[in-house]
Amino acid sequence: MPSDEVTALIEIAIRERTVLRVRYRTTDGHEEMHTIEPLAIRFNQAGHRVLWCWARDGGHIEQFLWDGIESAVATGETFPLRPWSDPEAESQV
């Protein structure tokens, strides 16, 4: 789970559209580094807190389980507003 400082950094990055480098631990324990454009913090249908983002590595919208985020660093780069819709919200309509 991210520290309070990392949580604050992610919240600011969402608001200011700042690119982040995130260290993430998968559910099977593998550590990964991702360059992301953070979009929103939500709860998914299973009740898990997740970070929705544009994953630059994969070129698609992705969600990261909040508990798997170990660290984040702002790159100093900003990104343009990316049109997206929250798939979890759409499925509840």
Automatic annotation (TrEMBL):
| Pfam families recorded | WYL
WYL domain location: 6-72
Q: Which InterPro entries match?
A: WYL_dom
Q: Which PROSITE patterns match?
A: WYL (PS52050)
The name this protein carries in UniProt is WYL domain-containing protein
Q: From which source organism is this entry?
A: Candidatus Aeolococcus gillhamiae
